# Entry
Amino acid sequence: MKLKPCLALVLGLGVAGSTLAATELVVATVNNGHMIEMQKLTKHFEQAHPDIKVKWVTLEEGVLRQRVTTDIATKGGQFDVMTIGMYETPIWGKKGWLKELRPDAGYDVDDLLPAIRSGLSSDGKLFAAPFYGESSMTLYRTDLVKKAGLSMPDRPTWEQVRDIAAKVHDPKAGVYGICLRGKPGWGDNMAFLSTMVNTFGGQWFDLQWKPQLNSKPWKDAVGFYVDLLKKYGPPGASANSFNENLALFNEGKCGMWVDASIAASFVSDPKQSKVADKVGFAQAPTAVTPKGANWLWAWALAIPASSQKADAAQKFIHWATSKDYVKLVGKEVGWGNVPTGTRKSTYATPEFQQAAKFADAELKAISTANPNDSTLPKSPYVGVQFAAIPEFQSIGVAVGQQMSAALSGRVTVDQALAASQTAAEREMRRGGYYK
Amino acid sequence: MIVPLVMTLYFSTVRYNLMQPGEHAFVGLENFEFFVTDPGFGPAVLNTLLLLGSVIVATVVLGIGLALLVHEPFPGRGLVRVLLISPFFVMPTVNALLWKHMMMNPIYGVLAEVWRFFGAAPVDWLTEHPLFSVIVMISWQWLPFACLIFITSLQSLDREQMEAARMDGANALQRLWYLVLPHLARPVAVVVMIEMIFLMSVFAEIYTTTGGGPGHASTNVAFLIYTQALLSFDVGVASAGALFAVLLANIAAVFLIRLVGKNLDR
# Structure
């Protein structure tokens, strides 16, 4: 049992001895399409920098988060470049766990979209470079909406969405009115539900850091969501997150779907979607206020403060998040597949405009999201669909569980919210926000 | 063995959250209190015991049944036995995914097709009966193990004695009750023991299918500790939880050893 790793280590050392000149960068990343593409294109980087070798550790989102968090918190030093989200970046940056990024003039930092850049900064210092960014929007089937004799406004209200869902819903034909996330998790159903709560006029915490989960906006929003999915959603919605809904939509089983803007490029790709030519895009639905109705997220590359190979890591991040990288993907893979949501220049490229009919809708969605001002009442936290504080993960997980229970009808919405409030208060008290 | 235990003991008495490193202040029993007052704690303990009990009963009863079925020679017996054993070699995560997507999915699962064939509305298993679904998966996985033990043990059943009983006019049920089952007492004890040890910490099936939900409907103690340790990054509370799990396992083991011990003495 123990012998094998040792042997491997000895052999590995023997091999490594011969190429000691090269610096080996260990990059941890998510198994999303764009990152897999980046791995394939790494050879271009290695050709340009023969003294650097890149080793990839590709993991599923949840597992990646656990690995990098434990690594950075215990100063493990396993990774030289980490793929982290907009949630972790400001928290870790503030703690001094990440190296500040100071790209040179060629990188053109001002080309980054302001919303994304500010979400990855803390006190004006950039701590992670965005690899791709996203907001949320409404995807719908133009043919079904037309058949129902309705039209989709550019910025629909939730009421309008409900009416359309009711008309389009036809389970006998295997079409469900609307698909939404229901799988528990702070990045799964809570990412979506938080935006819904925002637009219904709610917030996670008030200025005294008191959780607001049993307030009226939460009841309105969650009540609406549960009712909508029960009546016009697919069966088993409480187990669906992004990938499950993507599969359903691509199979032509959803009339509408409100989710990450990145979905737009997948559902309009004829290679994987049966309904590629029948998809329309609108902004995320609103209710009381447009504030925080669409989320803001970015996967970004950062260097842990403990890394011994910061220079090489800088070079790699510089390459992977540059304008040239976007052009490289456009040339090698196709302009429909370039990582979006990071740079103004990407959206200004005519080839991209042509390949991605969702470009304008996505840019609009990202520009209207503001992590520093996303709730109707003032909030003490940063983040649209999360609160960038360390306690949020466990609160989000606990609340997400309760919401999925409400969706599956095990408990009422009021019971679920009361239990969520208790869980949130416990965590906040333990975090020392109040006695 | 002793080092991790001591480390766990130490961690369980300090405030140690990975997201807020720094001082490991001594907090006494606060972590234990926090773990036990978790709203998911009651359901988790109950679910752990329910899962344990149901799976053990299901595998023992069905295992004996199947073992008796394939005990008498018939054409193709070897193949049937191999098929019986095979689920045990499926990895837990694969087993879970298989059931989640192929069998239980309400839209395209096999079970949904069967329901539709009979004109009924498909059941959304993982939402409506999450714990039951997990029990089904794990029973399917562990049935071969029980079956295997019972098959081998039946091989050593005294045929002459059975024959004599039949001559004396004992019917099949009587033979089962007075000869076969007492003969199987020991293997049953062994199966219960081993399954108990392994099923205490069922995790993969829950993680891949229901994520402990909806609510806490399918959260067991192992999964609750996981949420504390790796979703909340709270090492202190997770350690307290781990110690609690050790305690729970020991309590169960003491009862069990007494029960089984009685059997083995005879």
